[in-house]
Specification:
Number of strands of chain A: 22
Largest interface: B-C, 31 and 35 residues
Number of domains of chain C: 2
Number of helices of chain A: 17
Strand content of chain C: 15-25%
Helix content of chain C: 40-55%
Low-confidence stretches of chain C: 12-19
Radius of gyration of chain A: 24 Å
Structural class of chain A: alpha/beta
Helix content of chain A: 25-40%
Strand order of the largest sheet of chain C: 2-1-3-4-5-11
Distance between the termini of chain C: 66 Å
Oligomer: heterotrimer
Strand order of the largest sheet of chain A: 6-7-8-3-9-10
Shape of chain A: globular
Distance between the termini of chain A: 54 Å
CATH architecture of the largest domain in chain A: 3-Layer(aba) Sandwich
Order of helices and strands of chain C: HEHEHEHEEHEHEHEHEEHEEHH
CATH class of the largest domain in chain A: Alpha Beta
CATH architecture of the largest domain in chain C: 3-Layer(aba) Sandwich
Largest sheet of chain A: 6 strands, mixed
CATH superfamily of the largest domain in chain C: Response regulator
CATH topology of the largest domain in chain A: Rossmann fold
Radius of gyration of chain C: 21 Å
Chains: A alpha/beta (506), B mainly alpha (343), C alpha/beta (327)
Number of strands of chain C: 12
């Protein structure tokens, strides 16, 4: 007789309007193991876990927790039942201290009771010591590192003594070293008999740390397997539904014209949070230059200095094609042949409530092709958008469809199609595959390599080591606003070395 | 639109059932509302007279809204514009038709735009919130208007707080088919201008490159900035435009009907304009119909006092407010729908 | 269908009931019938006529400037026999509508319209103000009295000029502080501002204030009561509002004027033209009742009656702002 699983999904359905987020989900998660839920964006990973955590209620079917059918009305019910969740975007009050954030979750107190803070602090300190968490208890959370914030979220759950812990994309925001740390802790929790569920799309992490894995695609379970019986390739194939190309073998044309097209010298920026210090770099036509670094080390300032220098107080020089750009408007800079994939698509890249064709002309609306005598030339716009959607395989293939209703991958493909429509000389690709499914990642990477091969210069700002190592001809590491290390493709990339440079260890 | 209309009728039904407490038959009240808004050519004329400025103000709010701005200042903008048109008409009374009203309108639009520009500039350059600024500008405009009307160009023949009359060349009356069709009412061909302006705004917003840029700033200012569209410039221009649209009110008020600046002439057009824009979901063509609806409501409710013994001026204001509340609550409606679906 | 039927029946019932009595429409000014002052007086006169003369009365309050004309027109179109407009603001409206409806009779309080179907009801406010001014000077201990007017218009200036002259008649060295609440119709309905002005006057040494500000007056009286000073009411008898605090009220008998006009119309004695109300017919007067009999001593009353006779006999010439400003 097999032991009762910690969690079991039995024929679970969940629809949002027309969209079926989860269809007929069946899978089991054994007690005391690390189980990974993998899948592309919109595959139903988060939905299924939010069903388990009581955020949503299944339309059909049910979820069993330790053999009993769970009928959670809210996350509070799930927590009472010993389930905890660390969300992708942390649920922390940034202005409160770590201690206050955890105490907010105390259930055994009424609003009118005095909290015994000292007693609680002692208890939590002991708990933290047990897991070797070093936590500054009294500073506002907003000032602590992302890794620490995550540990506080975990501690919040541990102080409730939850037996089932769900982590939604826990490694997305961590440095390579912090990731190692996280998984060491998760192994420890597992040894204590807790069940860990991680939602992720990073297959390497799954292979290295999980015991079993469930693959979702389009709201359905496509594979359930123990980790020993599968491989990265197999998982990827399940996720995408087809075999992936190996981009390492993509041709890299040697571009003879090696003139430097973007030159940054001694750039200094002082912003509210972080800064750039004495940053200098050169970007040549026909190369992909990677800027590696964990988020918040000056990437945003670098991007801003390049695109809208007038909104910043900056010192130093930026030259695009030997033209100084530090006093120019964004429109003027773009007209110099500068294109950009924004680092945060929803914030900087698209108008979610607007149709694809309006998004496709955004930034090019004044070009002669799309505008005449001040009026939009809809015929051209529609034709061009339809053609781009065809060649970039953007689905659904409807130019009237609002971008908000597209998947992340298709949104990003639309942005890429838009930014490449004028064959730009410089492409600033900031986190080009953030929140994008594997199929689209492959496509976008291919496009960047093609642009490079046809002579464009690409500045790739990313925190994903794999992406950088796949694409970049050179990698510069940005740490606390300074370029601290340089790696060259010719010498072969050393993942560990780049990773530690990103963590500030050179 | 469906939900908005549902909200409208929900508010209407709720307001009408309140009249039960005053001892009235709600159906009777509804019939008065209807009859006094559309019952005769005279009533319809008055309804259309109230509709005209509401179209302009609704457009003013809607255009600003498309640029992501909340223009509470239509009242001040229309006050300044109307004052400017009157001042011109009083200062140069001998100008003749059609040059005179055209010039007065131009001046009014300019001054309205200027009043919008102040808020836009402060927003773009100093980051001051446009809601606060436009509210304050409303007070300033009211103060300037009072001072100007009472001390610079008062009406020598009346104790009323009103300005002297503009020259007769400024008045549309003799050339105005609309006014002739609705005798005894202050409605004028400004109504036609209002409808044409609404269509013009629609074309501007949805067919021109500038309109696209303006809407982009409204949908997502960060994305607009990245696309090389200057959020600051667009916001300044949008508020200038909003001010000019509100400034059109001078056409219906001064050149179209009264020929002078009467303090308190505006039945809160600038504020009801917000409700109009809301009701129309900021669609320029929808604004025409929403303004007509609100105009009818204003006219209908103002007659309740006259037609019944228990429904007073204050009660009819309650009715109007409840309907506006009903309209604005459509957001609440969709929210509660979503909750129900989740469960 | 049902809606139409109900509407039709109600309409029928109304129509039948209304044929017999005189139909009177009353258009009140922005202050409204509950201003306890000017409009209240008009309303009181009209309701008295409704009770005693069995007329059909309908009153409305103006909501905005453009509405005034519509209200008059609506009454005229409904074939009311007599329409009474309260306040100078209705002058233009009555001028226009009376010309369009020569068969309807109009009466206008505080304004003049020369038309064969309009009676203009004017009051000698300066005379009444003179006498309360004299009373204020007699009662004042500080030698400083105040005046708070509603809207800054010639009509209210007429009050203040008479008041000042009355005070100076008793005590030539007395100082009179004049303040106005505003310049728009809102001034009749702003008690907060009135209170503020009263407090400011009192702190500058004023101990008696004449408040001619419609519904705003209550705010001033609050301040006067708070600071233990004396106030003088206006238009209606306002003594009851704060017994012992309100010295007297300068009564402008709008109620009498309204009542008389209705009565005349009912008896087919309506005459157009200007009818002036002064001391002669008690159209203006100071109020004496149980609320102020303790403060208004017989000696004071004797003095006031003496001044009254002097004004009536022409011995005292009360300055009239209307005549002054026309010069």
């Amino acid at each position: 007789m097999t032991p009762t699983p910690a969690v079991e999904f039995v024929g679970v359905h969940k629809a949002f309007g027309e969209f079926h987020a989860a269809e007929d989900l069946h899978f089991k998660i054994a007690e005391g193991c690390i189980h990974a839920i993998v899948g592309e964006n919109g595959a139903g990973k988060s939905t299924s876990m939010k069903l388990l955590f009581g955020f949503y209620r299944p339309d059909k079917g049910h979820i069993k927790v330790r053999g009993a059918v769970a009928k959670f009305q809210s996350p509070a019910d799930a927590m009472t039942c010993g389930i905890g969740m660390v969300h992708q975007h942390f649920m922390l009050a940034e202005t409160h201290s770590a201690l206050d954030n955890i105490l907010l979750f105390e259930k055994n107190t009424s609003a009118f009771q005095k909290l015994n803070r000292k007693e609680h602090k002692e208890r939590l300190q002991n708990l933290a010591a047990e897991y070797q968490f070093h936590i500054d208890w009294d500073s506002p959370i907003g000032q602590l590192s992302v890794g620490t914030q995550q540990r506080i979220e975990l501690l919040k759950i541990l102080s409730q003594n939850s037996k089932i812990i769900i982590l939604d994309e826990p490694t997305a925001v961590l440095t390579p070293l912090e990731i190692v740390d996280l998984f060491r802790n998760l192994q420890k929790l597992k040894k204590e008999g807790r069940t860990i569920i991680i939602i992720t799309h990073k297959l390497k992490e799954v292979m290295n740390n999980a015991d079993s894995v469930t693959v979702l695609r389009g709201g359905r379970v496509v594979a359930n397997s123990s980790i020993h019986q599968t491989s990265i390739e197999q998982l990827a194939e399940h996720m995408v539904g087809r075999k992936l190309k190996n981009l390492d073998s993509h041709p890299r044309l040697k571009v003879s014209d090696q003139k430097s097209i973007l030159k940054i010298s001694r750039l200094n920026v002082q912003n509210k949070f972080s800064a750039l210090k004495n940053l200098s770099l050169e970007l040549k036509s026909g190369e992909i230059l990677g800027i590696a670094g964990v988020e918040g080390n000056g990437q945003d300032e670098l991007i801003q200095s390049l695109l809208s220098p007038r909104s910043l107080k900056l010192k130093g020089q930026i030259e695009i094609n030997s033209i100084s750009s530090v006093r120019l408007s964004t429109a003027r800079i773009r007209s110099l042949g500068f294109s950009a994939f924004p680092e945060d698509r929803l914030r900087y890249g698209v108008l979610t409530s607007r149709p694809a064709y309006e998004n496709f002309i955004l930034g090019y609306q004044r070009s002669r092709e799309y505008s005449q005598f001040g009026f939009l030339r809809f015929k051209n716009i529609f034709k061009k958008t339809a053609a781009a959607m065809e060649s970039f395989d953007i689905r659904p293939r409807q130019i009237e469809k609002s971008v908000g209703s597209m998947s992340g991958g298709n949104q990003q493909k639309l942005v890429v199609a838009r930014e490449l429509q004028t064959n730009p000389q410089i492409i600033l690709a900031a986190k080009p595959t953030r929140g994008v499914d594997i199929g689209a990642v492959e496509f976008i990477h291919e496009q960047l390599l093609n642009s490079r091969n046809s002579g464009a210069a690409v500045l790739l700002v990313s925190s994903e080591l794999e992406e950088l190592m796949t694409l970049a001809d050179r990698i510069l590491v940005l740490f606390k606003g300074q370029l601290v290390a340089e790696f060259d493709r010719k010498n072969g990339y050393n993942e560990i070395a780049i990773g530690s440079a990103m963590g500030g260890h050179t | 639109m469906k939900k908005t209309l549902a909200g409208f009728f929900l508010g209407l039904i709720f307001a009408l059932s309140l009249t039960l407490f005053a001892g009235e038959n709600p159906l009777y009240i509804a019939s008065i509302l209807f009859k006094s808004a559309f019952g005769s050519r005279y009533d319809l004329g008055l309804t259309l007279f109230y509709t005209t400025p509401l179209v302009f103000c609704g457009l003013s709010v809607a255009v600003a809204f498309h640029a992501g701005l909340f223009n509470i200042g239509a009242e001040g903008q229309l006050t300044m514009a109307t004052l400017a048109a009157t001042a011109l008409g009083v200062a140069l009374p001998s100008l003749s038709f059609p040059f005179a009203p055209l010039l007065a309108l131009m001046v009014a639009l300019l001054v309205g735009a200027l009043w919008g520009f102040i808020a836009g500039w402060l927003k773009a350059v100093r980051g001051s919130h446009e809601v606060v600024v436009t509210i304050m500008l409303n007070f300033i405009a009211a103060g300037i208007a009072s001072w100007f009307v009472l001390h610079v160009m008062p009406n020598p023949n009346s104790q009323n707080p009103e300005s002297a009359l503009v020259g007769s060349g400024y008045m549309l009356k003799d050339y105005d088919p609309i006014a002739r069709f609705f005798p005894d009412t202050p409605v004028s061909m400004a109504l036609i201008v209002a409808i044409m302006t609404a269509i013009g705004v629609w074309v501007l917003l949805w067919k021109t490159t500038f309109g696209f840029e303006l809407r982009t700033v409204g949908y997502n200012p960060d994305a607009a900035n990245r696309a090389g569209i200057s959020e600051k410039n667009i916001k300044i221009i949008a508020l200038c435009l909003a001010g000019a649209l509100a400034g059109f009110v001078s056409l219906s008020e001064v050149m179209g009907s009264s020929g002078q600046f009467k303090i308190g002439f505006s039945a809160d057009y600038g504020f009801v304009g917000i409700a109009v824009a809301l009701l129309a979901r900021n669609h320029p063509i929808g604004v025409i119909f929403a303004a007509f609806l609100m105009g009818a409501l204003h006219k209908g409710a103002s007659d309740l006092d006259l037609e019944t013994t228990t429904i007073t001026r204050d009660f009819s204001k309650i009715i109007q407010s409840l309907i506006i509340l009903g309209v604005t609550s459509h957001g609440l409606w969709s929210w509660s729908n979503r909750r129900r679906k989740d469960k | 269908m049902l809606k139409h039927l109900i509407f039709f029946v109600t309409f029928l019932v109304c129509e039948v009931a209304l044929t017999a009595p005189l139909k009177v429409g009353l258009v009140l000014d922005k202050g409204g019938k509950d201003d306890k002052s000017f409009n209240s007086a008009a309303y009181a006169g009209a309701t008295k006529a409704e009770k005693e003369l069995k007329i059909e009365l309908k009153y409305v309050e103006a909501s905005d400037v453009t509405a005034l004309e519509n209200l008059h027109r609506a009454f005229a179109r409904k074939k009311f026999d007599l329409i009474i407009g309260i306040g100078f603001a209705q002058t233009e409206a009555i001028k226009k509508i009376s010309a369009q409806h020569p068969d309807v009779k109009f009466a206008l309080v505080d304004g003049e319209v020369a038309a064969p179907n309009v009676r203009s009801l004017l009051f000698e406010e300066h005379e009444g103000s003179f006498i309360v001014g004299a009373l204020a000077a007699l009662k004042s201990k500080t030698g400083k009295v105040g005046f708070i007017g509603g809207m800054d218009i010639p009509l209210i200036r007429r009050f203040s000029l008479g008041y000042e002259a009355g005070a100076k008649f008793i005590n030539p060295k007395i100082s009179v502080v004049n303040n106005f609440i505003g310049v728009t119709g809102e001034a009749w309905n702003n008690p907060a501002k009135a209170k503020e002005l009263a407090l400011a006057q009192i702190s500058s040494g004023v101990d008696i204030i004449f408040v001619a500000a419609g519904a705003s007056g209550s705010g001033a009286f609050d301040a006067i009561e708070e600071k233990n000073k004396l106030g003088i009411g206006v238009d209606s008898n306002q003594n009851w509002m704060k017994p012992g605090v309100i010295l007297t009220s300068m009564m402008k008998r709008v109620d009498v004027a309204v009542y008389n006009t209705i009565q005349d119309t009912q008896n087919s004695k309506f005459t157009p033209g200007v009818v002036r109300y002064g001391f002669k017919d008690k159209g203006v007067d100071y109020a004496l009742d149980k609320h102020n009999e303790k403060i208004l001593t017989p000696e004071l009353i004797a003095k006031l009656e003496d001044i009254k006779t002097q004004i009536l006999s022409g011995k005292i010439k009360v300055p009239d702002y209307y005549k002054q400003s026309k010069k």
